[in-house]
Structure prediction request, 377 residues.
Amino acid sequence: METEARPVILIVDDVPENLSVLTALLRPDYRVLAASSGADALRVAAGNIRPDLILLDIMMPEMTGYTVLGRLREEPATRDIPVVFLTALADAGDEEYGLRLGAADYITKPIKPAVVLARVRSQLEAKKARDWLRDQNAALEAEVARRMRENDLTQLVVIRALAHLAETRDPETGNHILRTQGYVHQLALHLREHPRFAETLTDRYIDLLTRSAPLHDIGKVGIPDHILLKPGPLNAQEWEIMKTHAKLGSDAIERTQQDIDTPLEFLTLAREIAHWHHERWDGSGYPDGLAGDAIPVSARIMALADVFDALISPRIYKAPMSFDAAREIIAEGRGTHFDPDIADAFLNDFDTFRGIAQRYQDQDEPPAAASAAPNTG
Prediction:
């Protein structure tokens, strides 16, 4: 058991006497492997027993030590094994050349036992320190990755919990957050190559946008039940109260941001979406009457996703609209209600959005394609 734990040293020399001398010198303290050629050295170094250190002669026939070192550095399995050159070459230029190639040290022949043992011990201690540091870094990276996954999952769970909290006030929305999240993600993927959106819709932005989307109607928790659940059209006064849900939601998210020291990007997008997803391209929306590019991209994408899902979903005051009828309304709203390029992305890949709606269809909901137009009277 003790023998197996000893460091392994590979000696490479084409002179048998040199191999014998070095083996005898090192064997009391180390496990020694021997190779009499460069080809043998490469084979042994890549074998099941990986050397901790290689003592490598330079002047060998067929393959010099320089070539062997180059081959070792090319292979991931052997590139980190420290190599000490053993050579009769005494020129300083030869030593510098070997060190430039990546040798860890340089011992001239004839060897001095004390020098060899000291250099070997020094290199093995340095390797042990490097290995320890590498293992510590690997462990640290693994822990950081684990915590990032945990934080990511916690964030997603909290978002979903808040979204479901809003749904408890409006139980007929069912899988609305899953559907709209899917629409938003798909729209962003379609638009990221568009010249108008390429700079904004990075992979990072799309990820944050997708996870923030479920919070778009969080402000509805502040709307009274007699308005939110009214089984019919809202009167003018009630409609004004209903419209406040956009600002209620963004204000709640803003207060959350103020409670933490480090701003969170996804909350910034969530606030944009909550506040402005009812704005219209022509400026006729609410709460601020923004128009065109003044409306954040996140809110423009959410606006179309939210309207489409509202059209095809049943509500307490209406029946679901058919997919084809909903598509026509989106087309009619191009350039007035919706950013025209976002509307085009939706219309050009309508089957994908229909598929998302069907995948997350509420269990008790009739298929939208077979439904009548909404009853708004």
In short: Residues 2-140 form a domain with the Rossmann fold fold (CATH 3.40.50.2300).
